[in-house]
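Structure (tokenized):
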């Protein structure tokens, strides 16, 4: 079973917290917003969800 991290671009403020906290580099900055660069690497730890103050990130089981 894998995980599917999603960034809501409308909510993302570009703080880069998810990029910094992710242990497997799932996220990268795309301009002034975060984007999912390597979804297959997601461990499902949800550290990104916890640090995202704008609640722009969800992680679903796939």
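Design, position by position:
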């Amino acid at each position: 079973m894998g995980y599917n991290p999603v960034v809501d671009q409308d909510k993302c403020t570009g703080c880069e917290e998810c990029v910094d906290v992710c242990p497997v580099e799932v996220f990268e900055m795309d301009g002034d917003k975060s984007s999912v660069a390597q979804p297959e690497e997601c461990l499902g730890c949800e550290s990104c969800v916890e640090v995202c103050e704008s609640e722009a990130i969800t992680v679903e089981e796939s």
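Reviewer-requested clarification: Helices lie at 17-21, 47-51. The first helix runs from residue 17 to 21.
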